[in-house]
Input
Amino acid sequence: MIKTNNNSEIINAINLLLAEKRTSLAILRTAMAIFTLPLSVFTVLVATSKFYEFYSSLHFIIPLLIICSILVFLGVYLIFRSFRRIKEIDHKIHEIKKQQKTMKDLIDPCTLLTDISKLKKIVTFYLPFLCHLNKR
Output
């Protein structure tokens, strides 16, 4: 990790890690939007299903289902990837805090959002809710 005692280098390293964490959080937000897009498309298809014949529109529906399934898999992949990345960054920040006892008071206020379980609770709370809304 960091082998220096220079406080400015430690602060710069932590700022870099926090910037990477913000990037991962932005990817997580984008992934949730990508994941919910196909659900919205299916909601529109179900809501307007009485206006078209399913078997006569199959040549439109099959490519749409393929694209939607790709988007769902992409969203799930990005969600898990961002969770893993945030956890790695939190571990690195924790290692720096353990190595640099003098910087602990300065580092702690910077890492208020390091609990990955809070993010998992938010996602597991909202995803079933979104799926339930789209089933209507």
Summary: The longest helix spans residues 58-99. Residues 7-135 form one domain. The CA atoms of residues 49 and 57 lie 11 Å apart.
